User: What shape does this take?
Amino acid sequence: MGKDFLSLTDFTSEELMETFKLAAQVKKLTEEGKCPQPFKGKTFGIIFHKPSLRTRVSFETGIYQLGGYSLFITDKEIQLGLRESIYDVAKVLSRYLAGIVIRTFNNDDVIELAKWAEVPVINALTDLLHPCQIMGDLMTIIEKKGSLEGLNVAYLGDGNNVANSWLNAAYMLPLNVTIACAEATPPDPEIFHRASDSGVGKVRIVHDPIAGVENADVVYGDVWASMGQKDKSSEKSQALRRFQINDELLKHAKSDVIVMHCLPAERGREITDDVMDGPHSAIFDQAENRLHAQKAIMMKIIPSTKR
Ligand code: CP
Ligand code: NVA
Assistant: This one.
């Protein structure tokens, strides 16, 4: 197992499955008031250059439950590559911390930070990827459906960081992932082609929302304009309005479909209130599982002997 978790592809398929198993065990232990505390005396840096509710709170809470302490660091303190080089930031933080969690814009900055850091680095979202989100989501799907094998996941909307991480999930695991998006909003072509050429699972891109959700076990949504792209909001809404997740569209999925959304949602835009709060919704269970999945990721990669 590598030192970092920057993408789902940093773990092998077996390591991903072991992580879901560990996450379920740690969830149960936490509910019983017996959460393990391997991080006693350890401090983690949480560097965020974009807003966050779930990711920040679940990482900080998870680190605390595992016995550690977390420092929330914004761009007021660290301007990667501006106030000082990424190399220098990585070297200095490695002298203090047991691990670094980072949310920023450019995925290459995270790769560079991890290259020079001597402690594990976890990607908490970039413009390209959101791997921790998909780990919590896959854990939730296993809870609801028993296994991932052969399931049809339909992602509707913008071909963004979450869509790209779903393609990586199909690259690593036996899932069928459909990205239903507008022609103008595709996922990353390189990530798509790697998954379609040599994935464990299958991927496809469709431009018809009904074809996208046909036979789906999971229907998944995200905002149409991501953080850092809010100026493109009306353009994206125009392109994606056909892809709204609503009761009418869900009639074309399997009758026991579960609906997921990474949140934050723009209710009434990419998903209706009826669906978000309806009987198929797993949205708040999936938000909770961010906590458990991330605890398992940290337990897998943070050595108990280091500072
Ligand atoms: N889903 C998610 O990552 O939410 P936040 O942006 O609030 O962390
Ligand atoms: N695609 C969204 C995900 C938010 C968790 C964004 O990047 O804003």
Q: What stands out?
A: The pocket of phosphoric acid mono(formamide)ester (ligand 1) is lined by residues 52-55, 125, 133, 262-264 (CB under 6 Å).
